[in-house]
């Protein structure tokens, strides 16, 4: 198939997908075709790194917007045009005149994001030289500030967020043509920013695929290992169909339900997450399989009836029941969740929902916008997303805070489990899990928060630091004499409460501005430094203080001394949690040869691990490439990422650790030590074991030569009678 045939085929698939979603007017079809024509002409002759014509990318993004997000013609037109203004001679005014103000605004938002992203793109390097740095920037722009600008652009129109998610999903799907270090950088940014956005918008299918792809590129060996284990369980699906799916279908048919049943196997990433966070082996994941029952009804109470029918026949796990129907999630998700035991001894999660609930669950908040697009004259009153975006924009425009603080606060609003609380009058208040009494007070009213002394929770007096639980009734105790202080920031958990506390503290501290500034100028004079804008910025960075007001306040209060200022301008670094590596068994570009190279204590890389270097001042810290700390740093400070490799045949030992779980039998510890010390001649640094109720849990810190050496150890330990699991820390 030549290029023209390929492009024509992709367009036909796109327009057919639009028609299947809902009937299109002639004007809508004409506008989509015009957008396709403009894009095709604008990108003529340009190819992607994969070798395909460039227009295949906007066509793919538009298809994702339709089929996987569930958006309509406005999104399709904007997706087709999303790279035109940035990459060609066509301007925004031309887009506006051809397709209207809404499309122009969306394209402008996406273009602003792309423009900001280009600030943090690396210079072109020689791909044949494996030791060249991946990030050598002309402009060392702070990545967090770029993220703030990206988020501000997104907040102009929610369709900008949807299209950037579609764009990122297609880029992740086609990441194979990029260099390895670029795959890591893009994957880290996806983990840091785009996966939380997909979660907040309820786009769980896209979120799951992005998580899978990120893991595939950042932890390929573990991904392949778990995928192989999932593949080995395929026979269980056939057994479950006979003992669970067919009986449930018979049950629903008997009671006259119209329904659809879908089944799925837990994703590789979800399995890995459970194994890591719960400390279990793959064989211990009891909800590997799940079933979704979608009922053709508008009556939500039918979900509870179906739940009752199923749990009468299949015993449920009481601790695994979740009612998201009476208490929907923030993004509108509704469903009943339960986990039942099947006749073959396998736990299976069952989700029960109506057709409308399923549409929201599959398409998230996009379902609301699709309806709004098809019925522009109707007002259904559902503008929660717009309110959320307005609140986020107000937060991001705050100039008193550092960009990193702003982005981190934004992320806090994305991943939150919820609890339901009651006021003394019985009003229900939804709060993030982990909220304190102080957070609740600010959620009710700012003045109530500022005067909070504590509360009566279920008629029992508790302090403001008390962590609330779902179902509790809360009555705030307040006083006009109470004033917030810095300790309140340690108690508050929600961004709203923290913001109001900081606002109050800033207003109180402004009176110390002149006094603090004068003290800083005097201290700088004593150490021979001119206190100007550059010195002011350097002091803020050194003392990790986000605002000038806070810096002046600390100086006025005597919390910053002349010795502190001397340290600041002598660039004396504070301690870092690192393991020095004197021999530095890494290959790094000559440009960085004079810098100290250390291995990160958080992940303790050993030879054979995929590694990445993170520039930190005058040092390069080497992490495992899938280390959460490294991924965060690559996401926030992409410009500090350094391509790093192990020196071949380097003979050196590395400190690492394993967690081991065994049956509590006599002599098992001696067997473990014999394998480590005698069979493999491995030196141990520390060993701890605790036994409880017939099970032993141990941690061993030891020195190994490389990853293969560690795997050999784990393999031999697993062969010991009574050893249940061996995991690298």
In short:
The protein is of the alpha+beta class and 729 residues long.
Protein architecture, described:
This protein is an alpha+beta fold. The chain is built from 30 helices and 21 strands. The two termini are 50 Å apart. About 5% of the residues have low confidence.
Question: Could you give the topology of this structure?
Answer:
Elements: H1 3-21, H2 26-42, H3 56-69, H4 73-81, H5 84-87, H6 92-99, H7 101-119, H8 143-154, H9 158-173, H10 180-200, H11 204-218, H12 220-232, H13 234-254, E1 259-265, H14 268-278, E2 289-295, H15 301-313, E3 322-323, E4 336-341, E5 347-354, H16 355-363, H17 366-374, H18 384-396, H19 403-412, E6 418-422, E7 428-432, H20 437-444, H21 446-450, E8 452-457, E9 460-463, E10 474-478, H22 488-491, H23 495-509, H24 513-526, H25 533-542, H26 548-556, H27 562-569, E11 578-580, E12 586-587, E13 596-600, E14 611-616, E15 619-624, H28 628-636, E16 641-642, E17 645-646, E18 654-663, H29 668-679, E19 684-692, E20 695-704, H30 707-718, E21 723-728
Parallel strand pairs: 2-5, 13-15
Antiparallel strand pairs: 1-2, 3-4, 4-5, 6-7, 8-9, 8-10, 11-13, 12-17, 14-15, 14-16, 18-20, 18-21, 19-20
Helix pairs in contact: 1-3, 2-4, 3-4, 3-9, 4-7, 6-7, 7-8, 7-9, 8-19, 9-10, 9-11, 10-11, 10-28, 11-12, 12-14, 20-23, 24-26
